[in-house]
Specification:
9 strands; alpha/beta; Rossmann fold; seven-stranded mixed sheet; 259 residues; Helicase, Ruva Protein, domain 3
C-alpha cells in the first residue's frame, strides 16, 4: 500500500484544495505568536499553511507512518510532530490559550469536542472540519438541540464556517463537510455551576429524547413522575416539552431547581 493512500480504517480523507485549506486556517484566526494544535495532519497539506503563520504548530498524528514522514513533507522549524492518539493526549502539556485546527475523522467528532471542552487547560479558538450535518447539530437552536449541542455551547460560542464539498477530498466521503468554529468562553456561561451535576441533569433529559421531559427526567434521575413534575414546575418549565426544546438558560433554571 502506498504511504499516500488513505486508510479507510482510520477514516482518512485527504484535502488538497488550496482555497478550502486556507479557509480553515482563517476560521481559526491563526496569528503570529499563536501555538496551534493540529489534529490529524495526515500528508501535511494543512500543516504547511499553519506553519507559515503560527509561532509553533504541534501536530498530533495517530498514524505512525504519517507522523514519521511529516517532518520531511513539511520541513519547518516551528513544527513539532507527536505520534499519539488525540483522545489520550494530555492538553495540559500545551501553553494556555492554544488554538486547535483539525480535519478529523467523523467518528471522532463528539468524543474529541468533549475532551477539548472539558480539559483543565482549554483552547481559545478552534476550527474543526467535520461532517456538515454534525456541525449544524452542534450549532442547533432550541427545538433541535442535542446533548452534543448543549454541552458544546455550555463551554463555547459556536459558529459555522465554510462548507467543503465531498468532491474536494480523496477519497470523496459520502457527505459534505463544514468548518465548525468554536471560541471558548472566557467567563463561564453560568456562575457557581457544578458541571458534573449539570450534565447529569442534561443527560437525564436526553436519555429518552422521544419522550416528554417528565418521563425522561423520571427515568434518567430515578425519581417518580410526580417528583419530575414538581421539579419542572419549580423551574417554570412545561413537562410536556422534550429535551430538544430547552435552551441553555432553561437547563440552568432546571439545574437551580434541582440542586
Amino acid at each position: 500500500m502506498s504511504e499516500d493512500r488513505p486508510k479507510k480504517s482510520l477514516g482518512q480523507h485527504w484535502l488538497h484544495d488550496i482555497d478550502a485549506l486556507q479557509a480553515i486556517v482563517d476560521a481559526a484566526d491563526v496569528q503570529p505568536g499563536d501555538v496551534v494544535l493540529e489534529i490529524g495532519p495526515g500528508l501535511g497539506t494543512l500543516t504547511k499553511g499553519l506553519c507559515l503563520v503560527a509561532e509553533k504548530v504541534i501536530a498530533v498524528e495517530f498514524d505512525e507512518q504519517l507522523a514519521d514522514e511529516l517532518p520531511r513533507r513539511v520541513p519547518a522549524k516551528n513544527l513539532e510532530v507527536i505520534s499519539a492518539d488525540i483522545i489520550d493526549f494530555d492538553y495540559t502539556t500545551l501553553p494556555k490559550n492554544f488554538k486547535v485546527v483539525a480535519n478529523i475523522p467523523y467518528y471522532l467528532t463528539s468524543n474529541l469536542i468533549r475532551k477539548l471542552c472539558e480539559s483543565p487547560n482549554h483552547f481559545s479558538k478552534a476550527a474543526l472540519l467535520i461532517q456538515k450535518e454534525v456541525a449544524e447539530r452542534v450549532c442547533a437552536a432550541p427545538g433541535q438541540t442535542s446533548l452534543l449541542s448543549i454541552s458544546t455551547q455550555f463551554y463555547c460560542r459556536v459558529g459555522l464556517g465554510p462548507v467543503v464539498l465531498a468532491e474536494l477530498f480523496t477519497p470523496s466521503p459520502k457527505v459534505d463537510s463544514q468548518v465548525l468554529m468554536l471560541e471558548f468562553r472566557t467567563e463561564p456561561l453560568f456562575k457557581n455551576v457544578d458541571a458534573v451535576k449539570f450534565f447529569r441533569l442534561v443527560k437525564a433529559g436526553f436519555s429518552e429524547r422521544r419522550k416528554k421531559l417528565r418521563s425522561s427526567l423520571s427515568g434518567g434521575l430515578s425519581i417518580e413522575k410526580t417528583a419530575a413534575d414538581e421539579l419542572l414546575a419549580k423551574a417554570n418549565i412545561s413537562g410536556d416539552l422534550r429535551a430538544q426544546n430547552l435552551s441553555l438558560e432553561e437547563w440552568h433554571q432546571l439545574y437551580l431547581a434541582w440542586i
